[in-house]
Fold:
Amino acid sequence: MAQAVIEFVEVTKRFGPALAVDRMSFAVAPGEFFTLLGPSGCGKTTTLRLVAGLEEPDEGEILLNGIPIASPKRGIFVPPDKRRMGMVFQSYAIWPHLTVFENVAFPLRVRREPAAAVKERVLGALDLVGLQGLAERGATELSGGQQQRVALARALAYTPAVLLLDEPLSNLDAKLREQMRFELRSLQRRLNLSVLYVTHDQGEAMAMSDRIAVVHRGRPEQVGVAAELYETPASSFVGDFLGRTVMLRGTVKKSAQGSWIDLRNAGGRISLANNRPAQFAEGEEVRILSRPEDIDLLPGGEVGPNQIKAKVEMVAYLGDHLEYSVSAGGRSFVLAAGKKARYPVGAGIRLAFDPARITVLPL
Amino acid sequence: MKMPAASLPFPGLRVRLRLSHLAESFMLVFFAVVMGLPVLFLLWSSLNVAAPGKDAVYSLANWIRGFSDPGTLSALWMSFLLSVVRLIPAMILSVMVAWLIARTDMPGGNTLEFLCWFAYFIPDFPLVLAWILLLDPSFGFLNTLAGVLPFVEGPIFNPYSFWGIVWVHTSTNGIWFKVMLLTPVFRRLGASLEEAARVAGASNLTTLRRITLPVLAPMVLAVAALSLIRGLESFNTELLLGLPAGIYVYATRIYDYTRQEPPAFGEATALGSVFLLVLVVLSYFYWRYLRGKRFIVVTGQAYSTMRVKLGKWRYWALGGCLLYFAVMMILPLSFLLIGSFMRRYGFFNIASPFTAAHWQNLLMDPIFLSSLKNSLIIATATALAGIVLYSTVGYLVASRKSRGAELLDLFCWLPWVVPGILMSLGLLWLFLATPLRSVLYGSVWGIALAMTIKDSPVSTQAFKAAFLQLGPDLEEAARVTGASWGYTYRRILLPLVAPIAATVGLLNFGSALTSISTPVLLYSAQSRPLSILLMEYSFTGELERAAALGLLITLIISAMVLAGRRLGLKLTGS
Structure:
């Protein structure tokens, strides 16, 4: 990877006794759309504020293009106004006493750009976000979606080193949100911006990001591209956060024929062939994680390889498909299935796993 | 910093970062000097029995003398009793009026709110004079009127009494300020709380009793506690009405001590110190109580759109409120106007009772002109200094960037704990002891400084609330886009709080113009303000001229309030 635009090295931030960011390390490459994904209170917004310079780290080092901008042990802290960041706040933070034009012009005026250049760049930025002709509006006369665009234009009016986005879409209605996802992404591509994006919405993260860091309790639990995180989550937290998972417990068995996981409660076994059997010892208790859409429902009968027994507890008809609540191995979970084969409540069925698409984690 | 400066990527930045910290340190030192020092001075000098200027001799003699005087304890008790007795009806009325304005479909709510706001600014001293005109046993208009009725013998009203003082207080500062504080609180209560109670089957009244009031209880109690603390320092009314009847409160008692020949500063400070202790304890509990609860009502999601329907009662409610305002404000002010044109105050049945001579005398009086000039200088300086100082303090306290901010917050409550007369006593000592003596002692600047300090609680809280409401995002957005702290403060924060700044300036201007207890120990013949001149006129028996002057001050303030409201409305853009 080329020189990272933003690099966190073991950064820690405390609020009193509470640990908001815990030895956080990650790096954002130039032109990369990097997302911090996590539930509220996980420390992702604090991380963003640390980049912006709105919080001072307690330990560790934050580098901008390889130069430290915050490093308590070296006594360095560059204030926010000297960091050349562009930031869109969750609340948009549009200054209500200024017009749209003056809001967007503010960063340029601060930098004492000549009036002609200010005008050109502001109108250009407004053009970029699709707000042509609204320059002289009062900031408070705008809709939520328009305010969001003003905030974006303001962040882009000069050339920021990194564009920081703090849940910018969370206050928009669902339709506008989907539209803005694609607009933001294509804008980022077009301008080759480095973006650090914070969200709790996994759909948003997966649709837009080059890479995602799933943040849990102030630490990045897993960093990778969307497919990687979804298909092979490093922990059940990551698996759960990125969508629904089915989790079962089992015991690792090894023999001359190969390795498998014995799901004794569900009366079946799942081959471990493609899942790094060497990592696990004979008799070790493990969890297996699978996405519900990777599990096939089969009519009741003799369980074959990679199959377990289950029972239908509830059926919901959802138009284009059916949703079955099934119990297996002492657990209940919801699986979607097509309408061709239908199983009544109480029916015994089989669930077929795809050994290549399961994740095995130690207990 | 261990790194050599040259290798730093952004040299010299740490210095700039600390600008807000620098402001904070400066404010802390400033308030410690002008607020903390006078109080310490007061305590220290109460222990010093030597005459001013002589070597200090320490003893408890002042304290013993002060407290062996039975008048001292009875004055303390009277302060407390007067405050509590007048607080109860005023609180009940204020809650009712605030509820009517904010939560019911009573018409004219905005007008009523403005009337309260207006009445709050009307200085109390002229109103006291007006009530004397109305209620005096020998010439009071209402007594004369009642004398016409059969079965009435002798005067039935007497303002120079316990109940007289309570009544006049109800007129001067009864419910106005409390309604101003409570109405927004009632308004901000989340609509869903009341709606949920109504859906659950509670009637309007049950909802008010079981939901609205309990939820708002902390704020209502806070306002009550604040009024009690404020009431304890009351001075003007007690001075005019209490002294003739031999009713002393502790503030008039201190004033009395300082007016003795030779002035008994020692006893005055001993008495003041004890009272300070009582107030500090009260205020501490108030502050503690409020700290955790202040924002309970602010969390309500939306303003209530559902208002209680009063039916035909809404006109009665409005009528009641207007009647109250008419009796408490319009009646005395009209009689003040009449009184200022009377040959002899209160005597209607002499030949040709009316004359414009008092107005002519007043306006020709060179003392009046110099006092007017002094007052305008003091009031303008107070208003401007208050805006600059307390917008900074309010910002620092609201942003809570360090532990110093909390201390600053505490400092700013001090002037409400320290009554005006005590504060000026302490400042008097301070002015005399510093090299700034020639600038501050007996000058308009000394009075302006005292008034600025005196205004700190309201001003700080107003700015603090404004900054809290803005939230940190607007400021941080400016910082991230590259604006320094100073630039952000000037271009973003100050314009956004401009309406509050106008209000604070107006409040401080008004209180500087009308306060008597703060300048009473600090003025000299060269720096006499209008309020002191008013007091002197009333004491020398020139009630007609006092009425004219009181009316004039009232007019100046009314004009300011109206102009300020226009300006404020313009600034908020509504």
About this structure: Helices of chain A lie at 44-52, 100-110, 115-128, 144-156, 174-191, 202-208, 226-231, 236-241. The radius of gyration of chain A is 25 Å.
